[in-house]
Amino acid sequence: MPRAYTKASLADAVGRLRPGMRVLLPPGCGEPAALVGEICRQSERLRDLTLLGGIHLGDYPFARPEHAGLRLATWHMSPRLEDARRRGRVEFVPMRYFDLVTEFAAGGAWAPDCVLVHAAPPDARGWLSLGVAVGVTLPAARRAPLVIAQVNPAMPRALGNAFLHASQIDVWVDVDEPLTPYPPTVVGEVERRIGAHAAALVPDGATVQVGVGAIPQAVLEALADHRDLALHSLLVDASVALVERGVVTCAAKAVHRGRMDIAEAMGTRRLFDFLHENPRVNMESSGFVHDPEIVARLGRFVAINSALEVDLTGQVTAESLGPRQVAGIGGQFDFVLGASRASGGASIIALPATGRNGTVSRIVPRLAAGANVTSPRVLADWVVTERGAARLRGRGERGRAEALIAVAEPRFQEELARSLTS
Each residue of 327-360: pLDDT tens digit? Predict the structure, then answer.
């Protein structure tokens, strides 16, 4: 049944919400900041309303003590949420991205009562593009009991499977403001060396997936002389440079040849302008982009992801420091699994050899007590540090341990080698 698509003020739109509701937010640059700000202003009325979301680029206003009535359930933890978590207002949901599409939609364990969307203005036929944040938000909005849209001319009109019709939206607010940006990260010498080692493992014609942060950015910069690459899942500012140089053509893809399949975009105005009505970018839900079976069909798929620690068996944590949850599972497991099934595929875990200003090794005998395994040893393929690349696939316990020790910081290598006999 068509919905009303009623224009309202921020106060009246948020006035549709009730205490105890679950409300899904778009992540990253897609967050509807004006609607979130109004929820905070009405937080006393909205006691025990739970916001559902992932990566947040702002200062988490809804987690402040003055909005203590609000709750958050997130699949991407942040150290900035620790205080609210100690107060019992934040719950981490340990879930890979591919499963979010079903569990954070109608019928799922975290089914929202309302989905907030951030969209470009409708075209002449009433279609609104969700722009930079499609992955989880779009499938949830298509089935939600209540949909509230922040309509913003600053949102790029991304193409592909990115659209809601006005008849699928209950109420909308008119907000003209810049999107929350994700500026390029500062890349240092260590990251550049890691990027160069990782890029050397990427064949021409590959489909490449990277995340956010300094190392993924360094990898993208190091791919500048490759040919006929495709990008998958995420776009950042450095992605635009590769397209402009003619490195990214998507000409060798087995699925959607000539187009990038993207669920989210995180960057600055440069990226948003690139995304606007660009036929080379096919926005898709995470149910497609993160599906290991789809990834496997792409062939020559190279997943490049970061880590906090890798142990000598090949276990990876990218989300916790011991038992302390500091990030999320994200799409790492989806893409590592998909790459393992793709013809000519490869999975690269990239991390600095040391942490805490060089005082500890991030290649360790065993993951720290209580650490969560993001990628299991059975899927270990390549591990890259600034010291080089270690191939783990197909090797026994001792062989993979020796390969990892070879790319560890030299002053920790003897200690790591001793752990093999203890």
Answer: 999 999 999 999 999 999 999 999 999 999 999 9
d(CA 88, CA 118): 29
Q: What is the pLDDT of residue 406?
A: 98
Which percentage of the chain shows pLDDT scores above 70?
Answer: 100
pLDDT in tens, 73-127: 999 999 999 999 999 999 999 999 999 999 999 999 999 999 999 999 999 999 9
CATH topology classification for 189-419: Glutaconate Coenzyme A-transferase (3.40.1080)
C-alpha torsion angle, residues 339, 340, 345, 351 (rounded to 10):
70
Q: What are phi and psi for residue 64, nearest 5 degrees?
A: -70, 155
Token duo for residue 79: 């150290």
Amino acid at 347: S
Q: Report pLDDT digits (tens) over 264-282.
A: 999 999 999 999 999 999 9
- How is 298-365 classified by DSSP, letter by letter? HSSEEEEEE-SEEETT--EESSEETTEE-S--TTHHHHHHHHHHSTT-EEEEE--SEETTTTEESEES
d(CA 178, CA 154): 6
The model's pTM is 0.96
In the sheet that holds 114-119, the strands lie side by side as 6-7, 171-174, 146-151, 114-119, 22-24, 50-53, 71-74, 90-92
Provide φ and ψ at 260, rounded to 5°: -90, 135
346 neighbors 303 (Cβ within 8 angstroms): yes
Beta carbons of 77 and 325 less than 8 angstroms apart = yes
Domain 6-174 coded CATH 3.20.20.60: no
Give the strand order in the sheet containing 316-317. 316-317, 309-311, 363-364
Nearest to 100, CA basis, from 29, 160, 25: 25
Mark 254-264 as b/e (b = at least 16 C-beta within 10 Å).
eebeebbbbbb
What are the residue ranges of CATH 3.40.1080.20 in the chain? 189-419
Quickly count: other Cβ atoms within 10 Å of residue 87's Cβ: 11
Beta-strand pair 316-317/363-364: unpaired
Instruction: Tell which residue, 414, 407, 356, 410, has the closest CA to residue 385.
Output: 407
Question: CA nearest 319: which of 55, 52, 83, 116?
Answer: 55
